[in-house]
């Protein structure tokens, strides 16, 4: 057992001897049973540097966590100090320059609100309480993605503590290879303490969700697919089967009902948004139509992602073209008669700026796929975990024929190395960066990069 009494930081070190250890080691994803050597609640770059140096002196590893949304994708944490950044919540917006400096623990909605106060927007995804850092290091598929690309490519600079215990700021001029790796290559290259981001001039947008009975099925998804093929890059959308449980936390009209939902955001004014969405309203009689012109921060909630910790198991697959046969297979495994145990099974449209190589971009410059499929089920206990995992496997296998190469880092919820997700040339370059900056593999991220990808 390591003696942590010699590790002094302004924040707090929690160890298994503490009465609140189970609380301290908990992640947002309650299905993750994290068992690190200690948890460091850091408050500054100095704290993070002290933890990394202590780890090096004691032959330990270090991994960072903002919220724990991605906790299930981590490998077991034996011999590892878990750095939690939740106390680092500062956001500074420079409205003139349209930029923000965001400390490592800031949540997506917090940044969106700070930027929104100046008529600007970040590139938020569907969850208001993912941490901006993990979301951005792994790519960042946002409601503005088809217009502005992955959030990681809006990074201007990153403040981090590298494996040698030094606090640095890297950007396109200073350590450009490390800066490149941090933009979509995940958290394996240092403990990030702050991000510097370019914001976008979007004060409001037309967004919301259409909820139909799931019985609109394959026909509804085909109509959606044909619509999505023609929309401009200002529109980013998702179609999914949703089965909220029959519990009091869920609004009564949705409880226990299988639905097909289409969520979208259209950058522009209300009239343009209404015109863009109009064809979708013809799919059927909606149970709910929540579309409207809204301030950009409100877009963080249109997908109705849980804002409290939940035990969710997820799995994903990147897909190419969504043919009629692909849609039939999807409905067969996720639709109203599928018997799936999953809470949701969705198809997010890529394309636009998400699909265009960006020569100035980072490790995830773009994604060579048309769609990304993502499924999630709630795992309350071992038996249900097994049932949900089986449902996820069936979803994944059913869509194999339409799969694209690789995957999407942030949706790869099961532990796997980067080479199962990112292209070989990207992994080779990431390995070079890892060898340069962390040959001892002191820093652990989710989806590690093999030091020698060829082996
Ligand atoms: C409900 C839900 C909705 C989601 N919606 C979207 C979406 O719309 N778009 C999208 O792209 N993704 C989405 N995701 C996926 C999400 O972006 C990933 O799970 C991401 O890893 C979350 O980042 P986090 O920091 O909150 O999670 P964490 O689990 O805290 O971190 C994940 C990983 O990021 C790295 N990391 C985090 N902080 C640091 C740091 N300070 N220094 C170095 N590395 C760090 C680590 O490798 C860590 O293992 C969603 C996930 C959920 C559960």
Structure description:
- This protein is α+β, with helices and mostly antiparallel strands and 455 residues long.
- The chain is 24% helix and 23% strand.
- It is built from 11 helices and 18 strands.
- Strands 10, 11, 12, 13, 14, 15, 16 and 17 form an 8-stranded antiparallel β-sheet that branches. It has a 5-stranded mixed β-sheet with strand order 1-2-4-3-18, covered by helices on one side. A 5-stranded antiparallel β-sheet has the order 5-6-9-7-8.
- Strand 7 and strand 8 form a beta hairpin.
- The chain is globular.
- The chain starts with 11 loop residues before the first strand and ends in an 11-residue tail after the last strand.
- The model has no long low-confidence stretch (mean pLDDT 97).
- The structure holds flavin-adenine dinucleotide.
- The site of flavin-adenine dinucleotide has 32 residues, from strand 3, helix 4 and strand 9.
Describe what is shown at a glance:
By secondary structure, the protein is an alpha+beta fold. It contains 11 helices and 18 strands. The strands form 3 sheets. Strands 10, 11, 12, 13, 14, 15, 16 and 17 form an 8-stranded antiparallel β-sheet that branches. A 5-stranded mixed β-sheet has the order 1-2-4-3-18, with helices on one face. It has a 5-stranded antiparallel β-sheet with strand order 5-6-9-7-8.
